[in-house]
């Protein structure tokens, strides 16, 4: 079966996705009879459009500027082309405005209105307008997947299917690698917050403007997405009680340590409430994960805690989550047709 | 769709499965249009057989001996009835002989030969005769599921589907809760092996004859099952290099501790080799999990390690894994029909 793909955003995640697709496309055709055809790639200033499919080798050739390819169209927007191109799946990987969710939100809405399945690595639309997007997908019989928005390739959302025989009751998670790195360094080296942040910036873990991370907004967005998906809630980021990590002192960390505790920045979804805040946890807890790792603890009804740990960020990590969503959509569409 | 079930073995796991099924059967009918009908339950000395379905409430009534129910048949064996009853799924939960895999192995083979899908919580057949069972399932177009054999409801095997966009390269795991409890206690309390084993026995974590656990045979069996399933190997337990934990001294644990290491009993599947042995790991490693928990670290090609942690044993834990396998078989058979 042919699956025609429109990719919006060719940054780190979009490019990693294309590289992985190129690496594995033959395998997917052989194993699942799925023939993935990328027929459009949108960037901020225009797009590559080729109805019969873009040659991924040409597209990923680092010595060529994609804007010099013969099928580059200057200035075109996805919003204008979505209804004109034959597209089965739209993959949204643009950077998002955390207050409006744009431009990703409009891309997703336009795709769904045109009966195009959507895969997104773009958190904003989902923590701001989940209910709207979900309903729109339902009305248009579209599949909506967004594993990469939460903890990259750690199967946080898709694990729901593996637990049909169980019930997920609540969630505790460390969802921001930058903050976890900073707290881990403060704990291990007894340095202050500013020093650890500076180090995280030098290593490229923290942005130049780290506000969204350290104030807890990024983790809160991911927590909303997980809770809505796994617990069946319909919350937005405005429902989260958020406290960041910038006020944590080396003294507080020392005090915790002396009692065999550590301070971790947890997202908690429990009893219909969403909270992101620094929390004392026992040193021996599986939630005591160091470095930039993410951890998600699902409290289940029949098997206690089930815990997932892995890298929460990175191009190939997110790219492989997108590929996974894509193959699953392909298989689902195959059995339905 | 009706799904007719034969359960073999009504011990802790089999009974927990029935209780969960009773609790959730209405939900599954409503949500997935799957109507589960248990039409036979085999015990060692006979069976309950009722073609139109056994009333689960009656079956689970603790005040009644199932052998007094009117549809109890004394002395009948699953092997004689498998071809006569209308059965879609056979659920195998008998205790196994670790050298022969019997009686589970024969039950599974008989079910597959009769085109009956199989779910098993019974490790023996899979670590002894995986190739044979797998091929038989293939020849007969049967679905074969055995999530509960490895780490109960922790989705160790079913996670392969969540990682289609990635590749699993190798595995490290703690797969035996008894051994992990013993080593955790030896590390925390500086007691010797015999003391910790005795404690584990008192708490019911270790069997009266703990040989299969402490000598590493149980962990080796599970490692074989994971490696065959996730890495596509065709090994048996005879291919595993096994070393148990009974020779570990408090001195060795102290020495490790002083260097910020702990001793854990790991199963490792890497470079076409299977090993179960005590290994030094860093204290801060996510593999450093305490108590009776299991941990499975999958090294992936595109996203580094992805780690799963949870309870590796328990009736409801295994029961919910079986239910999960069952619903997935139901859904698969629905879309195929």
Automatic annotation (TrEMBL), chains A, B:
The keyword Membrane does not apply. This is homoserine dehydrogenase. Its EC number is 1.1.1.3. Keywords: Oxidoreductase. Residues 159-327 form the Homoserine dehydrogenase catalytic domain. Belongs to the homoserine dehydrogenase family. The keyword Transit peptide does not apply. InterPro entries: HDH_cat, HDH_CS, HDH_short, NAD(P)-bd_dom_sf. It comes from marine sediment metagenome. One of its GO terms (molecular function) is homoserine dehydrogenase activity. One of its GO terms (biological process) is threonine biosynthetic process. NCBIfam families: PRK06349.1.
């Amino acid at each position: 079966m042919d699956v025609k793909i429109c990719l919006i955003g060719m940054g780190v995640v979009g490019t990693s996705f294309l590289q992985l697709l190129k690496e594995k496309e033959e395998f997917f055709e052989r194993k699942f009879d799925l023939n993935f055809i990328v027929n459009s790639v949108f960037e901020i200033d225009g797009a590559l459009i080729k109805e019969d499919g873009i040659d991924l080798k040409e597209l990923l050739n680092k010595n060529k500027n994609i804007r010099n390819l013969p099928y580059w169209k200057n200035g075109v927007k996805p919003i204008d082309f979505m209804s004109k191109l034959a597209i089965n799946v739209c993959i949204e990987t643009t950077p998002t405005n955390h207050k409006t969710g744009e431009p990703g939100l409009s891309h997703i809405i336009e795709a769904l209105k045109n009966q195009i399945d959507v895969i997104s690595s773009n958190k904003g639309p989902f923590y701001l307008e989940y209910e709207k997007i979900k309903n729109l997908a339902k009305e248009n019989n579209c599949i909506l997947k967004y594993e990469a928005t939460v903890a990259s390739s750690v199967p946080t959302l898709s694990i729901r299917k593996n637990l049909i025989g169980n019930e997920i009751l609540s969630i505790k998670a460390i969802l921001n690698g930058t903050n976890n790195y900073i707290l881990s360094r403060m704990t291990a080296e007894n340095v202050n917050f500013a020093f650890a942040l500076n180090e995280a910036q030098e290593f490229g873990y923290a942005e130049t403007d780290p506000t969204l991370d350290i104030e807890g907004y990024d983790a809160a967005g991911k927590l909303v997405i997980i809770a809505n998906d796994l617990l069946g809630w319909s919350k937005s980021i405005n429902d989260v009680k958020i406290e960041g990590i910038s006020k944590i002192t080396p003294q507080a960390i020392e005090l915790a340590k002396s009692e065999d505790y550590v301070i971790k920045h947890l997202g908690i979804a429990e009893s219909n409430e969403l909270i992101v805040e620094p929390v004392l946890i026992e040193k021996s807890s599986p939630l005591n994960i160091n470095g930039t790792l993410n951890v998600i603890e699902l409290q289940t009804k029949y098997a206690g805690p089930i815990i997932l740990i892995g890298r929460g960020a990175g191009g190939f990590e997110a790219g492989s989550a997108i590929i996974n969503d894509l193959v699953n959509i392909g298989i689902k569409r195959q059995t339905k047709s």
